[in-house]
Amino acid sequence: MPGIIPHRHCVVCGKAIEPEEIFCGKECQNRYEEDRKKQRNYIIFMFAMLFGILFLMMFSNL
Fold first, then answer.
1. Which of 7, 11, 23, 62 sits a CA distance of 20 to 30 A from 35?
2. Which of the 8 DSSP states describes residue 2?
């Protein structure tokens, strides 16, 4: 389509930004990093629960 300026969208809020950027500002970058930390902690917690349940299942028959 003619007349459309090359651009990307912020991965957090969706605002149009320059093609070489990922976030529209520091606020979105900080929010993205906080969300990534929460996701990482959740995954670690789930694996710990899985291994805990497997451990209990393995040694409950002894």
1. 7
2. T
Q: Two tokens at 18?
A: 């320059």
- For residue 24, the tally of other CB atoms under 10 A from its CB is 19
Report pLDDT for 60: 87
Cα Rg, the chain, nearest whole Å: 21
**Mean pLDDT, rounded, of the chain:** 93
Question: What average pLDDT does the segment 23-28 reach?
Answer: 96
Domain ranges of the chain: 8-59
> Encoding tokens for residue 44?
């670690």
pTM of the model: 0.76
CA distance linking residue 59 with residue 37, whole number of Å: 33
